[in-house]
Amino acid sequence: MALATKYEREFKLISDAYERSGGDASKFLNKDIVSVIVSGDKLIGRNTVEGVDLRFRQIEDGVEMWIEIRDNVKLKQPIHLCTGFMKEKGRQMILIHNRCGRNSEVRFLSHCVFPHGLEFLHKMVADTEVGENSKLSYEDVHFHSDAGGVSVEAIYNTVLHKGAEFGNYFNLTQGRVGKLRVKMVVDLQEDSSAQIESKVYERADDDVHITEELNLNGERASGLARTVVFATDKSKAMIINRAYGNAPYTRAHIECKEIIKGDGVNVGTVPVLFVRDEKAELTHEASIGRVNLRQLETLMAKGLNEDEATEMIIQGLLR
Amino acid sequence: MLELRSVSLQRDDNEIIKNLSAVFRDGHVYAVLGNNGVGKSTLAYIIMGLESYRNYSGSVVFNGQAIDDFTVSERAKLGITLGWQEPCRFDGITVKEYLTLGGKRELSSERIAEVLDIVGLPKDYLFRAVDSTLSGGERKRIELASVILLDPKVVVLDEPDSGIDLMSTSMINRVFDALSDNGTTLIVITHREEIASMAEEAYLMCGGNMIKNGDPEEIIAYYRTACDDCRHVNEPLKKVN
User: Fold this and answer.
1) Contact A149/A178 with Cβ under 8 angstroms?
2) What single-letter DSSP state applies at residue A294?
């Protein structure tokens, strides 16, 4: 890990927040693991291994990065990305260009930690291209302050080439959400497959808008888009899951589960399916409602009270 | 002691439980035998106090106290629990979390392993999720294990063998023994004679009421002759001691 001495204190702050969000900060200091640490608008640490090329440039309020995984590279350890903002107010822009060559396998583990945000905007755009017969997964875990003053706009645009496999997982279940906009769009070519998933736990007046979209453009492409939101208090959520079956033998399932608790919640979901080829097959499943009464009573019959049972069910669903 | 005193439950125009009375003494094993649709599971839900079954008339009395206003959790805290006929799936919750209620119950690994062994599951099931990756039979075994680990005073087991292959009757026997050895009162809801025969006393249920009680072998013999081709000729029990 190349870490400038002047950033040691910042690294410590980020590492502590990263660990609180469930990450293992020791990975950043391991020279066998690809890692990138951004604090505010500065790149404060990076490490790479053979087969993975990193490039960076500073942009207004942030960092733009290029991560290229060459052909036939199979990384045993995930690439660790950590983006932090330790101040209360400000703005951060992160632009990521991931390119994965052919026959490669890589997993990204990204943690975004904003533990003190009161008036803070984080914008992130990740453009990802996955080469033929490669496997790439991108897990993005957010950890926000309890003040509710964090706004996040996260856009993931992904192109999958023939036979590629892709997973994109967004998770914000710790701390307050604040205002969240997530958009995941995947274009799938022949024989490729994708699973995209967002899980969010809303409290107080949190406000969430999530769009997940699968464009099944190549024959036999398949996908699953899934969203789970637990909305409490006076929170708002609008979830749009879309799938387009544009080629023969494409298959996709979109699923949205919104669980609500509290009289003040305002949630909605719109499933959108378009078929442009008679051999395509798309399905959807959507539900909005209280925690499943049967599950609740199962746990209550074992001695948990209603709140404890609800929490246990929700934590399971949001994993 | 758990008593049901003149309990009735009506749904729309249909009276599902009709002025039913029964007594379950501490530490005894009871079978409630009856055909499908006679109200056996409804009876289990009334005892447990499930939300949709709380509008019954009459009274459920536990150790001399009427518990009709008690919620499911409150009844569970008294030591009453239910082993479900078809246990739920729980996405993201492991068997270990399910058995320990998310860590709220402190149970030794040895105790958990011992109980899993009773229900015929190896220890490595602890790390599997209680979701659709488990078969109905596996979830049923886990449900029975969770009931044993609760050390309840009273448990209603709703069709404990459903979803479990017929060869596992010996496992059901081990479950009954584990609960009985702990002094638990067992109320076993069943339509199978083999399961009813494991009880010390049996009730025969028909048309939302108890129509007979006594020695399981006598009740089973009656059930075999009068209920296989049921014409509802039976009269409800006038009084249960």
Assistant:
1) yes
2) H
Q: What are the extents of the domains in chain A?
A: 2-317
CB of A128 closer than 8 Å to CB of A159: yes
Q: Which two tokens stand for residue B230?
A: 């049921």
Predicted local confidence at residue B167, as pLDDT = 60
Query: CA-to-CA distance for A37 and A46, rounded, in angstroms?
Result: 6
The Cα A145–Cα A97 span in angstroms is 28
Low-confidence ranges of chain B (pLDDT < 50): 239, 241
Residue in chain B nearest A304 by alpha carbon:
B73
User: By three-state DSSP, how is residue A286 classified?
Assistant: strand
Provide CB contacts within 8 A for A277, sequence distance 6+: A245, A246, A247, A248, A250
Which chain A residues touch B146 with a CB distance below 8 Å?
302
Interface contacts A/B by beta carbons within 8 Å: 67
Check pLDDT > 90 for residue A175.
no
What average pLDDT does range A273-298 have in this prediction? 96
Residue A294, chain B, CB below 8 Å: the answer is: yes
For A37-51, how does the pLDDT look when each residue is reduced to its tens digit (9 = 90+)?
Answer: 999 999 999 999 999
Q: Residue A281 pairs with which residues in a beta bridge?
A: A251
Asked whether the beta carbons of B199 and B33 are under 8 A apart, the reply is: no
Separation between Cα atoms, residue B59 and residue B53, nearest integer Å: 13
Domains of chain B in start order, with CATH, are 2-88+153-227 (3.40.50.300)
CA angle B192, B196, B197 (to 5 degrees): 115
Q: Is the pLDDT of residue A22 over 80?
A: no
- d(C-alpha B236, C-alpha A87), whole Å: 75
At B202, is the secondary structure helix, strand, or coil?
strand
Q: Please write the tens of the pLDDT for every residue from B8-20.
A: 999 888 899 999 9
CB contact under 8 A, A295 and B48: no
